[in-house]
From TrEMBL:
Protein's name according to its UniProt entry: Protein kinase domain-containing protein
PANTHER family: MITOGEN-ACTIVATED PROTEIN KINASE
Keyword Calcium assigned: no
Keyword Transmembrane helix: no
Pfam families: Pkinase
Listed GO MF terms: ATP binding; protein kinase activity
Record keywords: ATP-binding, Nucleotide-binding
Domain Protein kinase residue range list: 228-575
Length: 818
């Protein structure tokens, strides 16, 4: 005899449900669910090796689940809530079948139908339907969006979601406790939070309404909705009696939309979670992305894994797998922004005016944060978000009050100032650094992971307090560090802001970085050993906007005490649009704002002081080209002081230039040829040749053929560069083809004899050397751009010296002294 239907095919549950206990209802429903769970088995799998369980429809069920949800078919005892029965069913199936609870909920709620093919949610009572939908959401209110997270790091995951419970929570929080109605003050408080969720696609230059306008708008809205006759019909006191929850919900749906989009940040460490909350308590939501009310809104209570992210998963990037958030138990909710500053640069290509406005916006945010005594600690384009027409700072899990030590398990080295790097020059220092970071790991795997993050790169490390984010925010005195820690100060953010300004103005990173904005090992020495002179050289080379260059000189100072404050930066002519005049630096230096001078179009036949080029950028910089002066090209490269390395007065300048340090250091270190008399300071001191070995001069055989082709192509390329410059076009394409896409080789010329500096392969070498020639790759566009005029002049001088010409091979002859 069937335990599901009677003799006439009617469900037994219809007759006995009013008399059953909760356990009895669960037992009967469990025997006739619309789903079954299977384990995948293939021919090569033994019976005791079950595959991954999967949920499939049950073809033999009799629709007890749909009938139970339909109030017109089945009623239960008044002491039993159908919500409690449904929740017990979800738990039972998930436990017995060993599958995630959310999989069971989704199968029973979204894919189940009644015997007529109608979804169960359409036949269920509205209250039970709302409960069932809530079971699909994280914390019964957040509908996490499908697809990969918007951000994943070692310590946090950010996902987009729809908040189905915010309006109800705000109403409950701001309603009058005695009368249970929402009055004007509470209505304005609710709107001040909800207005942060307004989506915007407007331009960055658009301005949000001021506070007075918003107050007026909200007051009028309250008067309109307070007189809504729907509240009178519902007996809720309309017409001066405040707003009911139903009326307020209808107002929110019409004003802010049915779907309120938010971002959920899941964090691994409690300390980061507490910083995200506490650092926002004294800052204004106009400048820092605020937190929204959520299930963990009040106090510093940490949401436990079992009530938050224990069962939450989301799609991972690219591989179709799911990412469990069980390791990220601490959650905060924030307004979902429009785009980060990084995305704005890549996808919107803002002009000079927009860049200036955005940088001013970021400067105002930093000035406010510093005024509150807080250092952000991670100012970069990815941590600036556009929300409701404005840019705001996000990601405060690295923020600390002024004077505390910089404590993070990871950091963005590409934006750190020079004082944050230290060189470990002994094995003892290396061992101390290793012990400080790896002893706390607990096991070999953890120690290896920790060492990968903090191992020295070119013997340089960052001055971080070696504590994990999960430990209290106190200096770690249990280990001896081989270096002194530096307390956090606004000067750290000021340097990072300078890096951001440099990126937006030039489209280049101050120091080459990887995709995570961390500095590769080969550039660590550059970042750690900046000098003011080297920075000035780089700014002169790449920033043609006079005001922007002067602002950068004040932001990017090696001495932290000499960096301009953010409050003073807001008064700089770059932001105030004042004419640059002779105003001394804050530190009393003799530098001043420069007056903008008329620049003549450069030509290749004349060696100019400046060459305007579009330099190709490494990594993602190609997409970030931002023109600092339109329609002028965006990069100004100083040639004269940089490509005459035999001048003793320029030796230190060339050595410290970060882009050319590899080439120029090798040139400068060859002392025998730096002390020779110089016939003329403007004389070319090097020549670029297409071959790595020079066997004889004049060239013979294959070298002669290469020489003939090279000279002809070199001159045609120079003409192409000149034409591009005259038209204001980028010159990176012709520069790459300077030697048909192959490397060139830089030979140093003796300023007295005009001979090539001896190399280990020249037949007439008096002192063999492995220094020259230096390979110049086609990708070294900045060097090629700066050196092209002098390379052309050097080539012409060298040809005249030895009567070389691009003639046929058979006419070339070996000189008598070869």
């Amino acid at each position: 005899m069937s335990t599901i239907v009677n003799q006439v095919g009617k469900l037994l549950l219809e007759y006995v449900a009013p008399y059953l206990t909760l356990d009895g209802l669960v037992l009967m429903l469990a025997n006739d669910l619309p789903i079954i769970v299977l384990n995948n088995l293939d021919a090569n799998t033994s019976s005791d090796q079950l595959g991954e369980p999967r949920v499939v429809p049950n073809p033999d069920h009799r629709y007890s689940w749909a009938a139970f949800l339909d109030p017109s078919i089945i009623t239960v005892n008044d002491a039993i809530a159908k919500e409690a029965v449904a929740s017990a069913i979800f738990d039972l199936v998930a436990k017995d079948m060993r599958i995630p609870r959310e999989v069971v909920v989704r199968a029973l709620v979204t894919t189940s139908t009644d015997q007529h093919g109608r979804p169960v949610l359409s036949v269920a009572d509205p209250f039970i339907a709302a409960f069932l939908m809530g079971q699909l959401y994280f914390a019964n209110r957040y509908e996490i969006a499908d697809g990969p997270p918007v951000h994943v790091s070692a310590t946090s995951v950010v996902v987009l979601a729809i908040d189905h419970g915010l309006c109800s929570q705000l109403y409950d929080e701001y309603k009058d406790e005695d009368e249970g109605m929402l009055y004007l003050d509470g209505f304005i408080a609710c709107n001040s939070i909800l207005c942060q969720l307004l989506a915007t696609t407007s331009l960055t230059r658009s301005r949000p309404p001021n506070d007075d306008d918003m107050m007026t708008t909200w007051t009028k809205a309250f008067e309109l909705w307070d007189s809504d006759p729907a509240d009178d019909d519902a007996g809720s006191g309309g017409g001066g009696g405040g707003l009911s929850s139903h009326t307020f919900r209808r107002y929110c749906d019409q004003t802010y939309g049915v779907q309120l989009h938010v971002a959920l940040k899941f964090m691994k460490h409690e300390d980061s979670y507490r910083r995200e909350i506490s650092r926002r308590r004294h800052v204004h939501a106009k400048y820092i992305l605020p937190l929204l009310p959520s299930f963990a809104l009040h106090d510093d209570d940490v949401a436990s894994p079992t009530t938050t992210s224990h069962h939450v998963t989301c799609s991972s990037v690219g591989n179709g797998q799911t990412l469990s958030l069980a390791d990220y138990p601490h959650v905060v909710a924030m307004p979902a922004g429009d785009r980060t500053l990084h995305d704005i640069l890549v996808k919107e290509r803002p002009g000079r005016g927009d860049i200036q406005a955005m940088l001013l916006n970021v400067a105002q945010c930093l000035a406010h944060l510093h005024g509150c005594g807080i250092v952000h600690g991670d100012v970069k384009a990815l941590n600036v978000l556009r929300v409701h027409h404005q840019l705001k700072l996000i990601d405060l899990d690295a923020a600390n009050p002024v004077g505390e030590f910089f404590q993070r398990s990871t950091c963005t080295s590409g934006i750190l100032p020079p004082e944050m790097f230290v060189h470990l020059d002994t094995t003892t220092a290396m061992r101390q650094h290793y012990d400080a970071y790896c002893r706390q790991a607990g096991d070999a795997t953890g120690a290896a992971a920790m060492w990968r993050q903090h191992r020295p790169r070119s013997a340089y490390v960052v001055r971080l307090d070696p504590v994990t984010d999960s430990q209290p925010s106190q200096p770690n005195n249990s280990v001896e560090l081989p270096y002194a820690l530096i307390p956090m100060s606004p000067s750290m953010d000021i340097w990072a802001f300078g890096c951001l300004v440099y990126l937006l103005v030039t489209g280049l990173h101050l120091v080459p970085t990887d995709i995570h904005l961390n500095i590769p090992a080969e550039y660590m020495a550059v970042a750690a050993t900046w000098t003011d002179l080297a920075l000035d050289v780089k700014l002169e080379a790449n920033v043609d906007d006079i005001a922007a260059r002067d602002l950068l000189r004040r932001l990017l100072r090696v001495d932290p005490a000499h960096r301009i404050s953010m409050a003073a930066a807001l008064e700089h002519p770059y932001f105030t649009a004042q004419t640059c005049d002779s105003v001394s630096l804050d530190d009393g230096g003799d530098e001043a704002f420069c007056t903008i001078e008329e620049e003549k179009p450069p030509t290749v036949s004349h060696i100019p002081d400046k060459i305007h080029v579009h330099a190709a950028c490494d990594y993602d910089d190609i997409a970030l080209k931002c023109r600092a002066r339109e329609p002028s090209p965006s990069l100004v490269v100083e040639t004269s002081p940089l490509v005459t390395p035999t001048q003793a007065t320029n030796a230190e300048q060339c050595r410290s230039h970060p882009t050319l340090s590899t080439h120029n250091t090798m040139l400068l270190d060859h002392d025998p040829h730096l002390t020779r008399p110089q016939p003329d300071e403007s004389s070319p001191s090097f020549v670029l040749l297409p071959m790595s070995r020079v066997h004889a001069i004049p060239f013979v055989g294959n070298d002669a053929a290469i020489w003939t082709s090279f000279v002809s192509h070199f001159h045609s390329t120079c003409h192409a560069v000149a034409a591009a410059m005259a038209a204001g076009l980028p010159i990176d394409a012709p520069l790459k083809q300077l030697n048909h896409g192959h490397s060139l080789y830089l030979y140093l010329l003796d300023d007295v004899t005009g001979d090539l500096v001896p190399t280990e392969t020249t037949s007439n070498s008096a002192a063999p050397s492995a220094v020259y020639p230096i390979e110049i790759r086609p990708t070294d566009l900045e060097f090629l751009a700066m050196s092209l005029p002098l390379a052309l002049a050097g080539l012409a001088t060298w040809r005249r010296q030895f009567q070389l010409s691009p003639r046929p091979v058979e006419q070339a002859a070996v000189p008598t002294n070869a």
